[in-house]
Specification:
alpha+beta; 2 domains; 5 helices
Length: 197
């Protein structure tokens, strides 16, 4: 019969033996992380009368850990499905919003925009790569937008300004711009709303 003071050291010894055997097996071409190698080491430890009870305790611990990992995996899979559904829903909401959404930098280079924003400026969204919002604004509107950016830089959290959009194949349209700083602090989120045509 073992006393309580030797049990922790025996458990450590058991773990050390298992690690040692797994390391030796990895030299023989079996990965130390391989379930087969782990089971072989555990089987060898369980074969000895001296280490069998501790090996069984270790086996139980490993089984509990495996069940925990399986439960975590199930939860992660459910969470991923929920996130994908939410992302699809938010994408539809973003693209079908009645307001044009633009993510731009200080130079008004367009990083992102929704379908409504592309319709507002009169160009297909896929053709806007590398373009700037400035290309679609009158000179005064661009100056007002830049002034709004400066106000955000001085501590305001939301600013608005009126602007006129020059569109590729249609008449110019008056719009209202509502601007906030992007959470990362480098870009601006611009919402443009115009009267329906």
């Amino acid at each position: 019969m073992t006393n309580a003071t030797t049990t922790p050291s025996r458990a450590s010894s058991l773990r050390a033996q298992a690690v040692s055997r797994l390391a030796a097996d990895s030299g023989a071409g079996i990965s130390a992380a391989s379930p087969v190698a782990a089971l072989q080491a555990l089987y060898q430890l369980a074969s000895s009368a001296e280490t069998a009870p501790r090996a069984l305790a270790l086996l139980h611990e490993l089984q509990v850990h495996q069940v925990e990992l399986d439960l975590q995996d199930d939860e992660l899979r459910r969470s991923r499905v929920e996130l994908e559904v939410t992302l699809r829903r938010q994408t539809v909401l973003y693209d079908s919003a009645p307001v044009g959404y633009f993510t731009v930098d200080d130079d008004t280079a367009i990083y992102e925009l929704n379908l409504t924003g592309a319709r507002l400026v009169g160009i297909d969204r896929d053709a806007l790569g590398g373009r700037t919002l400035a290309e679609f604004l009158t000179t005064k509107s661009l100056a007002d937008l830049k002034a709004a950016f400066a106000k955000l830089g001085s501590g305001m959290t939301r600013v608005a300004c009126d602007c006129v959009l020059r569109r590729a194949a249609a008449a110019s349209v008056a719009a209202n711009a509502s601007i906030v700083a992007d959470p990362d602090g480098r870009l601006y989120l611009v919402a443009l709303s115009a009267d329906p045509e």
